[in-house]
Amino acid sequence: MLYECIKAKSLLSKKEMLAEGWFHVNRSLNAYRGCEHGCVYCDGMSEYYHVDDFTTHIRVKKNAPEILRKELKKLGYSSQRELETETLWSFLPDGDAKQLAMRLPRRIVIGVCGGVSDGYQPAEKEYKITQQILETLLDFRLPATILTKSKLVLRDLDLLKELNRAAFVNAMFTITLHDDGARKIIEPRASSTPDRFAALKELRRAGIPGGVMATPIVPWIGSTYENMEGLARDAKAAGAEFILFGGMTLKPGRQKEHFLSVIGKRFPEYLDKIRAIYADDNRYGIPIWRRLPINTMLVGHQICKKVGIRDRSVRHLLPSESEANYRVLGILLDIVFYQRYMLGKPWNVSRPFYELSVKLERGVENLVLLRDAGHLKERLLISDEMEGIVQQVLETGSCDYLNQLLGDTPEESSVERAFIITDGENL
Ligand code: SF4
């Protein structure tokens, strides 16, 4: 393994993401270029990211914490020392304090690892870049999301607890294979499946929110009922707030060639079937849906229902948010997610829900106050139907539209049948 220390010119992703329904982050960063975990399906290998020898040559961004500090300041955030001046607010007249608060930027959630490298890969043991990044976020009181395949995250447990108290932390583990034998082939240098569940359990016991990203589910190898149900049951036992199942993309070029060569050697019985799924060389690696053995999200949804665990990642209430707005935003994000990824509805159906989610995340007045003043519709520029949805969530906390959407999904028994029908027969 080759480690090379480099100087990064920038760190945070340029564009702020809003209403991002998978990881609930606004900006992301990578402490390393390349990843030693060496997962055979890794997207980072593709030419798209311009990183040669992705799994064997790790570039360590030694100056990442320093760059992050500069970038956060540029975005208008203040370090803890500077924030101490906030305590002066209590002595300011009400109007002045409000004006000062208006000038502070909204707190964003930073995706610390899990972008195009794992921040807790083996190099982190020595270089501690992710640890320093978390310390920087603690100084800035900014929320963080972690997505990892490594139990090394437990080294920073105390730091994560402190950051969670000061701002917020969401710790997620990617876990895709219940059988550790298959995991050793597919994710060779990541922590074992039992170790990841054990680490998640410890984080949850320490009061840190978190769950499982069961994605990518590799067709045929990971998409069996036993694998998916086993993951859901272990996630629940570890105290996960959710388990989200998702499919696999395979970009033509290095990523696809490497993946297929490993499958050819270690799982030759699936090679032709998997090759057929990605036969059209879509530039984003999107599979030919009708050739997939199952609809991963739909089956995942039914398994989660059976096991009793949420199948959608949780968007948590951030310290600066209003509870009412947060509730409505959570439901809107669920609607968009289920419409788009599980039920395959066209974009124009989801668009109004997405657009309102973006507005809410950018920040609008407390929706309860707007409703009481009769200004919901004109302030949010929404239709009568959407106003009805918002009103219902504010009044009851639930949403008939979402329940109906989920009611449209097939029953569990038909999903189990789908496994039997498609198992090896649909190509
Ligand atoms: S942990 Fe993530 S970034 Fe690292 S090799 Fe695996 S898929 Fe790629």
Question: Mind explaining what this structure looks like?
Answer:
This protein is an alpha/beta fold and 427 residues long. The protein folds into two domains: 316 residues, Aldolase class I (TIM Barrel), CATH 3.20.20.70; 90 residues. The protein has 19 helices and nine strands. The strands form two sheets. Strands 2-5-6-7-8-9 form a six-stranded parallel sheet. Helix 9 packs across helix 12 and helix 13 runs parallel beside helix 18. The longest helix has 20 residues. The chain is globular, with a radius of gyration of 22 Å. 41% of the residues are buried. Bound molecules: iron/sulfur cluster. The site of iron/sulfur cluster has 10 residues, from loops.
Q: What is shown here, in short?
A:
This protein has 427 residues and is of the alpha/beta class. It contains 19 helices and nine strands.
Supply the CATH superfamily name of the largest domain: Aldolase class I
Order of helices and strands: EEEEHHHEHHEHEHHEHEHHHHHHHHHH
Strand order of the largest sheet: 2-5-6-7-8-9
Tell me the β content: 5-15%
Shape: globular
The CATH architecture of the largest domain: Alpha-Beta Barrel
The tally of strands reads 9
Give the % helix. Answer: 40-55%
The DSSP helix count reads 19
- End-to-end distance: 40 Å
The overall average pLDDT, rounded, is: 91
Rounded Rg: 22 Å
